[in-house]
Amino acid sequence: MSVPVTILTGFLGAGKTTLLTYILNQWHGKRIAVVQNEFSEEMGIESPVLTNEQGEWYGELFELPNGCICCSVKDNLVVTIDKLMQKKDKFDYILVETTGLADPAKVASVFWTDEGQESSIVLDGIVTLVDATNITSQDITHTQTSHSAQIIRQIAFADRILLNKMDLVTPEAAVRAQEYVRMYNQTADIQRTDHSRVDLDFILDIQAFKFDRLQDMISEDPTHSHETHGCGVQTIFIKLEGVFDFDKFNRWLATLLWEPSEMEVFRCKGLIYGVATDDSEEGSRTEGVQAYGFQGVQELYECKELPGLSKPSLEQATTLQNRLLFVGSHLDRNALETGLRTCRVESPRADL
C-alpha cells in the first residue's frame, strides 16, 4: 500500500513550525514522518528548527516517543525519501515542510505519479497555512512584490487551507481574511485555527488526487464567480456540452500546460466525455462515448478513463455536459473555450 505524502507550505511566520512541533511532541495517535531541512534553495525545504522538549535538535532520522519520525534532508529529497521508506513499517503518513518562499509545484513534482503506476508513495494533497494577521494588514490584492505573489501562489495551489492566528484578529478581520483567501482559491476547504491547532484528519490522507473523487470535487460551481484577482490569479470554471475527441483534447491540454504563453495554469481538473479513436488496419473507428477525468499541477497532468461512471447512450451524446476547472495566472476564458470547442466531435452519432 502506498504511503500518502502531504506537502505543507505557507509564508514565513504562518505557523508551520508550530504545527510540526505539535505533531512531533503531542500524543495524537498518528504515525507521521516529518521531512524537514534545507537541501535545495530552488526546491525550498526548511532549515532545521525543530527541537524536542529538552531543546535537542531532531537529527537526520529521529524516532519520537509519540510514534512519529523526524527526518532531515541533507542533499536530495528523493534520496532521503528512499532512505525513509526503508522504515516504512514505522509510519503511515509523510509530511514534507517547505520554506516560506517555496513553490509548491516544484515539490509536488517529486511525488507525482500516474494513478495506474505502482509506487511506494503517492501525492495526497497540498496544505497551506495562512497568517490571518498578515493577510489583513497588507492588501496583497494590490501589492505586486515577489513575496505577495508567492503567498498568492501558495494559496492557489492548496487543497486544504489553515487560516491561522485567528485569536489575534477581530471578527471583522477574520471575515475579511477568509474572503481574501477565497479570492485566490475557490475550491479548497478552509479551516480557521489558532496556534496551528487542527484535527490532523483535515490535512492527512485527504486523497486530493484520487480520480474516484474527481466527480465530487467538481460537482458544483465554485463558490464565487470572480475571475480576475490580484497578481493576475484566476479561477475559471467551464461547462461545455458535447463530446470531445479524446486524442485532440489530450493534445490541446498538453499544449496548454507545456508550451510557453502568457497563460500559466497552476492547477486543473475536470470531467469530460469523449470518444477515443482506434486506428487499425481496417480504418479509423471510434470506441464509443466514455467518461474521462483529468487533473494536473502545472506541467504535470494525467487523463484517464473513469469506468465507474456509466456509459452515455448515443442519444445523450450531444447534450452531455463537460466540467473543467482551471486555476492560474492571466487565464483567458475565451481562448480556453475556443480551444476546447476545436476538440469537440461535431456529429458524434455519425462518428460512433
Which strand-content bin applies to the residues?
A: 25-35%
How many strands in all? Answer: 15
Backbone structural class: alpha/beta
The assembly state of the depicted protein chains is: single chain
Rg over alpha carbons: 22 Å
Q: Please give the share of residues in helix.
A: 25-40%
Q: Regions with pLDDT < 50 over 5+ consecutive residues?
A: 38-49
Largest sheet: 8 strands, mixed
* Mass-distribution shape: globular
Contiguous helical run count: 10
Order of helices and strands: EHEEEHEHEHHEHEHEEHEEEEHEH
Mean of pLDDT: 81
For the terminal residues, how far apart are their CA atoms? Answer: 39 Å
Strands of the largest sheet, in order across it? 3-4-2-5-1-6-7-8
